[in-house]
């Protein structure tokens, strides 16, 4: 496994990270279907054995369950791994809603640390904040204070639209940007990647397997259970993903 520095953070991360969205399970929806914790724990352990040291999750994945599983799996290796999590999906106070208030961010960080069985988070990321929130300078001041307290080592932002990343770099000092990037989604290659290089900001590829379709394991007739984010994907969209993946199979030949 090759490692590289994440932006200018000084963190030496494996080029292939472990995305822990799926291990949160399906109890609260917004998932990739049902999971078995024993399988999840074994997968995390195997990833670590193979040299993966970067593990990315979010508090909202399984309403904390993904963090719990990671915490259990990595507690004996804490000084050897880089843990990234996210904040912004408030599932504590009634129906899940977006919440980036300073008091809530501090509260959510404490809860995340408890579940992850750690005193600090290596990379704390704002989870899909809308443009009007990114424009609020208070947001980044809150993260700076948490960094000064040693509760987080670095902070970043996870986004949908590349323009949100360039805006974040103008409004604050995110040290990493997580953005959708795979062979189907290339928008970030243009303006965002160049700006990130100029500012020394690390890039984390989000959904690199295109919601699992690039694994080649899914077919056009497949259905997904309630709670799985792909359950509501339009049938034509699924068909196009499957057909496109078929056309790319030659890339894996000989590997």
Give a quick set of tags describing it.
about 20% strand, 8 helices, alpha/beta, two-stranded antiparallel sheet, seven-stranded parallel sheet, about 260 residues, globular, 11 strands, single chain
Q: Find the count of extended strands (DSSP E, 2+ residues).
A: 11
Using the CA coordinates, give the radius of gyration.
18 Å
Helix count? 8
The helical percent reads: 25-40%
Beta-strand content estimate? 15-25%
- Order of strands across the biggest sheet? 3-4-5-8-9-10-11
Terminal Cα span: 16 Å
List low-confidence stretches: none
Structural class: alpha/beta
String of helices and strands = EEEHEHEEEHEHHEHEHEH
Protein model, in words:
With 255 residues, the protein is α/β, with parallel strands linked by helices. It is built from eight helices and eleven strands. It has a seven-stranded parallel beta sheet with strand order 3-4-5-8-9-10-11, covered by helices on one side. Helix 1 (37-49) crosses helix 2 (65-74), helix 2 (65-74) packs across helix 3 (102-116) and helix 6 packs parallel to helix 7. It is globular, with a radius of gyration of 18 Å. It starts with a strand and ends in an 8-residue tail after the last helix. The model has no long low-confidence stretch (mean pLDDT 96).
């Amino acid at each position: 496994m090759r490692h590289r520095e994440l932006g200018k953070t000084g963190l030496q991360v494996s080029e292939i990270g472990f995305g822990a969205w799926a291990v949160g399970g399906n109890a609260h929806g917004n998932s990739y279907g049902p999971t078995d914790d024993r399988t999840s724990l074994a997968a995390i352990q195997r990833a670590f054995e193979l040299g993966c040291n970067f593990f990315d999750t979010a508090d909202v994945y399984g309403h904390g369950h993904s963090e719990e599983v990671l915490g259990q799996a990595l507690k004996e290796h804490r000084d050897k791994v880089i843990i990234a999590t996210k904040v912004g999906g408030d599932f504590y106070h009634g129906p899940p809603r977006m919440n980036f208030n300073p008091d809530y961010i501090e509260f959510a960080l404490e809860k995340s640390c408890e579940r992850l069985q750690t005193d600090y988070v290596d990379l704390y990321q704002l989870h899909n904040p809308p443009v009007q929130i990114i424009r609020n300078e208070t947001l980044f001041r809150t993260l700076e204070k948490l960094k000064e307290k040693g509760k987080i080592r670095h902070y970043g932002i996870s986004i949908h639209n590349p323009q949100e990343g360039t805006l974040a770099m103008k409004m604050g000092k995110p040290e990493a940007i997580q953005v959708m990037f795979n062979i189907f989604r290339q928008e970030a290659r243009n303006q965002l990647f160049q700006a990130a290089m100029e500012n020394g900001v690390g890039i984390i590829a989000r959904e690199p397997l295109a919601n699992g379709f690039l694994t080649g394991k899914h077919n056009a007739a497949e259905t997904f259970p309630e709670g799985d984010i792909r359950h509501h994907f339009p049938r034509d969209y699924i068909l196009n993903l499957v057909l496109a993946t078929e056309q790319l199979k030659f890339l894996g030949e000989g590997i």
